[in-house]
Amino acid sequence: MLSDSPGQSAPPTAETPRLDWARLLRDHERWLRTVVYARLREAQAVDEVMQEVALAAVAQKAPLADPAKVGPWLYRLAVRQALLYRRRQGRHRKLLDRYAHRESSMAEKGGRPDPLQWLLAAERQQLLQRALDHLPSRDAEILLLKYTEDWSYRQIAEHLGTTEGAIQARLHRARAKLREQLALLVEGDGQP
Fold this sequence. Notes:
The protein is mainly α. It contains seven helices and no strands.
């Protein structure tokens, strides 16, 4: 795996001066752009990759000691940045494909609700929440365990320490109270 910093570089000393990266990048830019274009075949991609190359060259951790190795090092850096760009684009493309596939399969099945259906579902949810808020906590608790957690009568009975028959009776009464509250809220008599 290539690194953004040369592996055998030494820290700058009096003998190894800092390189002028702005000038070096200008000097090597044309042929590096050609290399990147040959790998990506997109003009916009070349600009993005060259920006990444410039950033990596300027921000390198260990300065390049031998100016004669600047060209090969920049070449490896440009190739690596081009590969990273292609990977990012591939991941992005896969994400879009998955989303498009999911949306098209929903449209084929007719499962995509229209805005009116969304609005009605939201209103039903709000109405149901308001009705649940008016129920005693024991009734709301058992309804939520049964219908949101999808627990069986046996599971509810085990967790609450009672019998399945008692749970069935409590659920029957809780559903009746919920229907009453919903009717009151729909009629407008019991609005808080």
